[in-house]
Design brief:
alpha/beta; UDP-N-acetylmuramoyl-L-alanine:D-glutamate ligase; 2 domains; Protein-Tyrosine Phosphatase, Chain A
Length: 435
């Protein structure tokens, strides 16, 4: 066991709940640590239900292509906790992470605090101590009471598409969830808003008016679209004719557009067009329609098969992934098969309905890395309610072996999906963790 993992186990025992949205505990700890959240580099805060990780990845790629040193905070991780903290382009190393965990544990002195709060405090210590030009700070859950929202004066905010997820903590409808996401908005800080459900946009606009945050809204102040195999971005400052992003899927056009809009919203983020173009080609975001072309798992499938990985886990995420699969099928038709594992906190029926009429079969698998996982039987039942043929398996490897045995003359296109936890297990099993 890594030393950092031992700290994480102890942190988990500090609070009876894994999630308890509040700012009081982290504000207390940060104050006792000397206020590192006030000494971090210029910060861009990114909230939303879907697309916030991809938008963050686009921002990082574009800023780094312009020569800037960029810190990134994101969650959850796929294989190792270290993926959550990127210091000037590299994941935090074990020695620095463990030393910082030791420091926050000592200062916290056993008092109640959630795992996300104490590890966010550790990340902020690291960000404050390592020089950089920009910090990209991805919100963990919600926004208003998320531990990242201790940042007082970000240089820009971004809210990616809001949809139904985490209703237990954020509210039962789109408007309530958007109200919580909009809690990151700050007076005079420009806020880029991706395309939203009308109810979500109304909630965001009300909060922006209340705090005095200028909004830059998709479809009103900027737009990104595909034209003749190019990404066309347009706002009040003009039009950019850009290459399509490296990340697969039509929804990535909007995510890339949000990143470009953010770069043009804040003077401190001004980025040459050449760096934006380069970033679109270099961007990398594991487990978001990621093609697994090598490793242990593709070898389990027949020659000519395709193996894809996506951590989508809510209905809107399912629709985006299904749309991408449909696009791939238009270009090159192959039988589509899903390997699915999901958490019991997610709308499995809503997620799987997106694939009705598209996927030929679903294989339900367990997720060993989460105690909140649905059983393979439950996944199969949800798939059958969505009108999909389904059967259960004991592992990803078993599912791929069955797919191989059942394959016809045309090799299949296989997607492992339903959870970022499952995606992490797939990357670990494949021997290709994020690097």
């Amino acid at each position: 066991m890594r030393q950092s993992d031992a700290y994480l186990e102890r942190f988990l025992a500090l609070h009876p709940k894994e999630i308890d949205l509040s700012l009081g505990r982290i504000e207390r700890l940060l104050g006792e640590l000397g206020g590192p959240h006030r000494a971090m580099p210029a910060c861009v805060q990114i909230a939303g239900t879907n697309g916030k990780g991809s938008t963050t990845a686009f921002l990082r790629a574009m800023l780094e292509a312009s020569g800037k040193r960029v810190h990134v905070y994101t969650s959850p991780h796929l294989v190792r906790f270290h993926e959550r903290i990127r210091l000037a382009g590299k994941f935090v190393d074990e020695e620095r992470l463990a030393a910082t965990f030791e420091e926050v544990e000592r200062v916290n002195d056993g008092r109640a605090i959630t795992l996300f709060e104490i590890t966010t405090a550790a990340a902020m210590l690291l960000f404050a101590r390592e020089p950089a030009d920009v910090l990209l700070l991805e919100v963990g859950l919600g926004g208003r009471y998320d531990a990242t929202n201790v940042v007082e004066k970000p240089i820009a905010s971004v809210i990616t598409p809001v949809s139904l997820d985490h209703q237990k903590f954020l509210g039962d409808d789109i408007s309530a969830i958007a109200h919580e996401k909009a809690g990151i908005l700050k007076a005079l800080t420009p806020a880029v808003i991706s395309r939203q459900d009308p109810a979500a946009l109304s909630a965001i606009e009300r909060e922006a008016a209340k705090v005095g945050a200028p909004l830059i809204v998709s479809g009103q102040d900027w737009q990104a679209r595909e034209e003749r195999g190019r990404l066309v971005f347009e706002d009040g400052d003009g039009l950019l004719d850009l290459p399509l992003p490296r990340l697969v899927g039509r929804h990535q056009i909007e995510n890339a557009g949000a990143a470009v809009a953010a770069l043009r919203a804040a003077p401190a983020l001004a980025t040459p067009v050449g760096a934006i173009e380069k970033g679109l080609g270099l961007v990398d975001w594991p487990a978001r329609m990621q093609r697994l072309a090598s490793g242990r798992l593709p070898e389990l499938l027949p020659a000519g098969s395709e193996l894809w990985l996506d951590g989508g886990h809510n209905p809107d995420g399912g629709r985006a992934v299904a749309s991408t699969l449909a696009e791939l099928d238009e270009r090159s038709s192959k039988p589509i098969v899903l390997v699915v594992g999901m958490l019991n906190t997610k709308d499995s029926d809503g997620f799987l309905e997106a694939f009705a009429g598209l996927a030929g079969r679903v294989y339900g698998v367990p997720i060993g890395s989460s105690g909140a996982a649905r059983t393979p039987d439950e996944v199969v039942s949800a798939a059958e309610r969505a009108g999909l043929a389904a059967e259960k398996c004991g592992s990803i490897e078993e599912a791929l072996a069955r797919i191989s045995r059942a394959a016809g003359p045309t090799p299949p296109r296989v997607l492992i999906t339903g959870s970022l936890y499952l995606a992490g297990e797939a990357l670990a099993a494949n021997g290709t963790p994020p690097g």
